[in-house]
């Protein structure tokens, strides 16, 4: 997984519908939603498991990136204990780890094929987007949103 240096905080009150209902976090825990998204100019993906991304998020991504279509590969909730870490697998090649460094700071690690690809330390109060090139002039995106 090759990464490009594009990290775009998306602000202005991003609200996403959730497909799953996660357990309420315990006192001190934080929850984040992690989405693996594929960007392409092809209208119909070959994989029937891919779902279209919510229009609000597509609009925000299209303001920064060149692709016409965005498809959700996987969506997971990460529960992060106070001063601890949570990790989810979004695909065979993609994992995300989120560590609480004390409010408001968060460390986000992106792993590609079990290797650390990118580490970001910042407050994640709205939405964090990490992106990289893929084959056939497409791209992947990991979108992390606090719940």
Poorly predicted runs are 1-22
Radius of gyration: 15 Å
Distance between the ends: 27 Å
Largest sheet: 6 strands, antiparallel
Specify the number of helices.
1
What is the strand tally?
10
Q: Structural class, please?
A: mainly beta
Characterize the overall form. Answer: globular
Order of helices and strands: EEEHEEEEEEE
- As a percent range, the share of strand residues is over 45%
Strands of the biggest beta sheet: in what spatial order?
A: 1-9-10-2-4-3
What is the mean predicted local confidence, pLDDT?
83
Provide structural commentary:
The chain has one helix spanning 55-62, and strands spanning 7-9, 30-40, 51-52, 69-80, 85-89, 94-100, 105-112, 115-123, 128-134, 138-146. With 147 residues, the chain is mainly β. It has one domain (7-13, 29-146). The strands form 2 sheets. A 6-stranded antiparallel beta sheet has the order 1-9-10-2-4-3, with no helix packed on it. The chain has a 4-stranded antiparallel beta sheet with strand order 5-6-7-8, with no helix packed on it. A hairpin with a 4-residue loop joins strand 6 (94-100) and strand 7 (105-112). The longest helix has 8 residues, at 55-62. It is globular and about 45 Å long. The model is unreliable at 1-22 (pLDDT under 50).
């Amino acid at each position: 997984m090759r990464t490009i240096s594009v990290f775009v905080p998306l602000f202005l009150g991003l609200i996403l519908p959730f497909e799953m209902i996660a357990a309420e976090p315990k006192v001190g825990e934080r929850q984040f939603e992690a989405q693996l998204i594929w960007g392409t100019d092809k209208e119909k993906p070959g994989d029937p498991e891919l779902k279209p991304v919510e229009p609000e998020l597509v609009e925000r991504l299209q303001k920064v990136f060149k692709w016409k279509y965005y498809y959700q590969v996987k969506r997971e909730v990460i529960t992060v204990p106070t001063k601890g870490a949570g990790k989810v697998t979004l695909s065979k090649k993609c994992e995300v780890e989120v560590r609480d460094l004390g409010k408001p700071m968060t460390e986000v690690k992106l792993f590609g094929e079990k290797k650390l690809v990118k580490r970001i330390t910042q407050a994640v109060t709205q939405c964090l987007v990490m992106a990289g090139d893929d084959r056939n002039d497409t791209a992947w995106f990991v979108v992390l949103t606090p719940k």
